[in-house]
Amino acid sequence: MRILLTGLGTYFGSKLAQVLERERSVELVVGLDTREPVLPLEHTEYVKADSSFSILERIVTATRVDTVLHTHLVVDSTQASGRALHEANVIGTMNLLAAAGAAGSTVRKVVMKSSTLGYGANYTDPYFFREGTARSRAPRTRVERSLLEVGGIVGDFAEDNPHVTVTMLAFANILGEHLGSPIARMLRLPVVPEILGFDPRLQFVHEDDTIGALVYATLHDVAGVYNVAGAGTMPWSEVCSIVGKRRVPLPPFLTGLAVEPLRAARLVDIPPEILALLRYGRGVDTSRYREAGFRYQYTTAGAVDAFAQGLRLQSTVGRREYRYERDVENFFRHSPAVVRDRS
Amino acid sequence: MPLGWGHGFTVVMAPEPVDRTTTAARVLPDSRLAGGELVPVPKPAASGDDELRVGDVDGWGRSERVRAIARRLYDPLYRRWFRVEWEGLEHVPKEGGALLVGNHAGAIPSDAPVIMHGIETELGRPLYGLADNLFRLVPVVGTLWSRTGGVPAHPDNAYRLLHDEQQLALVFPEGTKGTGKHVSERYQLRRFGRGGFVEIAMRAGVPIVPLAIVGNEEAMPIVYKSGRLAKMLNIPYFPVTANQFVFGPMLGLVLPFPAKFRIKVLPPVHFDAAPNQERYNRSVVIDHSDRIRESIQNAVYDLLRERKSIWAG
């Protein structure tokens, strides 16, 4: 199996490469990103490039990859401007799939990392979205619009390329000690915001299950859209008390205006899609991926508990990060001095 | 074995699982729970992470502890104020999913809390109340509504409750058309929606248990309705209730009259349609819906014939 991986510069991309390069059936991992990997990698090839079409097609042709793992969708709208978000999500996916579907392409499998953000959060919603359930209101935020657009592009690609196994995984809010989603950032604050009078049902997936789910889709043939989330939901108040944080209420009316000074003061940036979540919450039905054979390690409560444990560790020893050093990595990857025993 | 019942019954807050024999003894109508006790709730098989949780809120936002407090507070109202009497309670299944369907009335209807309180104390089974999702918009009220067993009446929610979790759910197909009736139209049942409740029960493969209720109309009768104010406030109806003349404009909006409640449970309606179908024959659905509405209407008339006094029953 020869894999092209986007988003190698994120924790997920790097971690995924780390897991995949240890798999016996995986021959090659080519990682693509503008940022350097954040974890030590043994023989994953890092290509510093953006997702423009010409580069991608050359890489696909040159490396004869058969699997494309697209982990580079931006779902945290605080991390990119609207334009950058559109470029990364919509244009990036379009280019990638164009390269994967080009004439003579060797690609036979595409795995996408998406988000349940695409379902929205509204008072008219069902309590557990199924994979086929449509949103109850049109999307208002940029990130949700771009995710829906990406869904359309991926659906078209799957239809046009019946010989390619296309999997799209919609992840619930991811929790883990290694990453900073808007929710995780809120839970790291000394006091955690809530909307007065609302205590929404939330659902989380642990970062290890996120990696596991992507690896599972890569190594098995599971075509279609799947929700990925820990079993059960948990009210925001309970999440906060497990993490051991007090809550401060935001006003239930004009909440969007109320968070503006917090953002300006760089205290916390709560984007509108997260405010909607703090008001109405969201749950998804997870039976489909389980029926496809995937086994979770964490439930929603388990993910919250593991996150709380990580926070406690970090409050004592701080966050440990790996710094990528190009020459060291190149040495490990290419030097004949390194004994490469993969068995 | 339907999903969600893998672990059998557990009494919330009690560390040891209660076996089925003890539970069976508890659900007999004569072993009435005093209002504040906890109802044994079947746990979804998938979770099993209870030791990590600090609360007891389930996937529907319902908390048995909050429910127990609500029952303790509501018990005097149930027993002394409304003096609720049941007939045919044996028709409510002791296990497995079922959709309870009743007639709906009163500006702020008392029938839903009365039925939920009654089923839970008499049968020891949790009952989820399906209602308008407008509750979710209101701060504090929406959260309390959800903690005390309210669930938005979305078809997917109803299906999951009834089919996947084999729970009891309560629905009033008349919706706000029933509660928004003028006092002169009392006990004239409104249209039962478009029969969606029948379709859900068919899809979930559960029976419908019709309930005929009297007393709910007189608990809070509407004497005047302002269409213009309702439109301005964007609510289904703007009532002036008889209670407001007696108790004052504010208290009269929340305090019902002590009308005697009598609830008659009719034999369950089973459907021969195959469950889990994409769609069901509309005329069959409407036909069943009309028949169920008719049977409730007739049972309401029977109860009214037997009733000698609104207040004494």
List key phrases describing it.
heterodimer, A: alpha/beta, Rossmann fold, seven-stranded parallel beta sheet, two-stranded parallel sheet, 12 helices, 17% strand, globular, B: 313 residues, Glycerol-3-phosphate (1)-acyltransferase, seven-stranded mixed beta sheet, 11 strands, 36% helix, disordered N terminus
Notes on the structure:
- Chain A has a single domain, classed as Rossmann fold.
- Chain A has twelve helices and 13 strands.
- Chain A has helices spanning 11-20, 53-63, 82-100, 142-160, 182-188, 207-219, 236-243, 255-264, 272-280, 287-291, 300-317, 326-334, and strands spanning 2-6, 28-33, 45-48, 67-70, 109-115, 165-171, 173-175, 191-195, 201-202, 204-206, 224-228, 234-235, 246-250.
- In chain A, helix 4 links the parallel strand 5 (109-115) and strand 6 (165-171).
- In chain A, helix 1 packs across helix 6 (207-219), helix 2 (53-63) runs parallel beside helix 3 (82-100) and helix 3 packs parallel to helix 4 (142-160).
- The longest helix of chain A has 19 residues, at 82-100.
- The mean pLDDT of chain A is 91.
- Mean pLDDT of chain B is 87; it is low at 1-31.
- The longest helix of chain B has 25 residues, at 282-306.
- Chain B starts with 8 loop residues before the first strand and ends in a 7-residue tail after the last helix.
- Chain B is an alpha/beta fold.
- In chain B, 36% of the residues lie in helices and 13% in strands.
- At the A-B interface, strand 12, helix 7 and helix 11 of A face helix 4 and helix 5 of B.
